Amino acid sequence: VEWIKQVVAYTNANSHYTFPDDVPLGEMFDRMVWHQDEPFQTASIFAQWCVMREARANKVVVLLDGQAADELFGGYQPGTYQEQFLEWLSTGRWLTFAREFIARKYATNVSWPVLVRELGQILVHGATGVLKLERSKVNPRERLQLMGFRESEIDKLHPRSQTDETQLRAKIADDKEKLANWEAKLRRKPDDEELKAKIAKKKDQIASNFHKLARADVGGIGGAWLRLRNNIRIAWNRLHGRPRHELREYLIDQTVSSSIAHLLRFEDRNSMAFSIEARVPFTDFQLVEWAFRRANDFKIRHGWTKWALRTATKGRVPETILWRRDKIGFETPDAKMSRQLLEASGRDPVQSPHLGRYLEPDAMRVVRERVRSGQGTRDDGRLVWRWLVADSWFRQFTEAGAAMQCAPSSAAA
Predict the structure, then answer these.
(1) Three-state DSSP class for 66?
(2) DSSP bridge partners of 63
């Protein structure tokens, strides 16, 4: 709130505040899920719903929104830094990397140990978007287990054969034998382009299986050595441009596919629920073209992301806002809001017949109790929130006639 107040005071704007605690979450929840039309992941969608509700209550029918600024100018941290650093390293711009790597420490106040650990992490895993990547976030089966999926569903989504050590070793040995025979044949027929293509593809398959083997639960010194060797190989290839890293392509993907498309959809559904027109000036096609044609070297400067935008708005917003070190999204206290929703709705995701087909009740019960007792982490809160959203969506859109029965009237506000 303190940051909002600084902008309001600087611009002499009229301000209105809304707090999720003041909105009846239990009463609004199903209606919000209905308007969104598909499950969503976090309670920030509800926070935006509250903003639209407050705007309509104050007879504001057109809003300007800053969506796309982060995607165009590289505002999401630490992913933007990570992709840019990998681009500089893989293209031989070592001095630029060193200068900006040091400058980032003073621009963001992140400690040296964290930055050095992150550098080792991204050389192996690429731009992860987090400072510290947990092992459970890398292993797909562990990640699904933490989300509460039944073993039978995990096997469908990620079959055990993909991480079975014995099968992977056998596959690698068989592929190596084939590769040796093909390479011997190529020495006799050096102009055989088809054979060259087969060899290249087989090498990629062997490398992929080595990577899977390194991620499998192989214990002991042998497993540790295997993972270390695999990580060194990946880092070496990444430093030599395999795969290629380019910040421009990274941000284009966020703009047209992985980020802004979803955010704009959430906003459109929430604003239309209250008959509000939400305009997003940063998506103007001329600005988008300029950002990716002319401003690529001005995304990160002197350790700061969104350098072009910061300098362009100098004098128009407070300096404390322009050069604020931390980056916080449209965050909500997910664990607290999930606890409130459990209490207000009276629903128990553990008892949901829809979720029970895919999720393990015992695992769900443990997470639910942590959230109910106030001991749940943000990840716990988000997980329970997603369960409740999915349950509401199933009830409203898959049960016979439910979608028509739940369709809100014009009194949605």
Answers:
(1) coil
(2) 278
Q: Which residues touch 173 (CB under 8 Å, ≥6 apart)? A: none
Q: The whole model's pTM is what?
A: 0.82
The span from the CA of 324 to the CA of 327, in Å, is 8
DSSP state of 64: E
DSSP 103: H
Cβ(333)–Cβ(380) below 8 Å: no
Token match 């509401």: residue?
A: 392
Give the CA count within 13 Å in the CB-facing half-sphere of 238.
24
User: Can you tell me the distance from the alpha carbon of 8 to that of 13, in angstroms, rounded to the nearest whole number?
Assistant: 5
Buried b / exposed e over 176-214, threshold 16 CB at 10 Å, is eeebeeeeeeeeeeeeeeeeeebbeebeeebbebbbbbb
**Alpha-carbon distances, residue 285 vs 76, 250, 299, 306, 373 (angstroms):** 21, 18, 18, 18, 49
* Mean per-residue pLDDT of the chain: 89
Task: Give first-to-last CA distance, the chain, whole Å.
Answer: 25
CA distance 26 to 17: 21
Rg (CA), the chain: 25
Distance between CA atoms of residues 304 and 80, nearest Å: 10
Please, which residues have CB within 8 angstroms of residue 61's CB and are 6 or more apart in sequence? 55, 275, 276, 277
For residue 314, give the amino acid letter: K
Spans in the chain with pLDDT lower than 50: 162-163, 404, 410-413
What's the pLDDT tens digit per position in 158-201? Answer: 776 544 667 777 888 888 999 999 999 988 888 888 899 899 88
DSSP β-bridge partners for residue 62: 277
Largest CA distance in the chain: 81
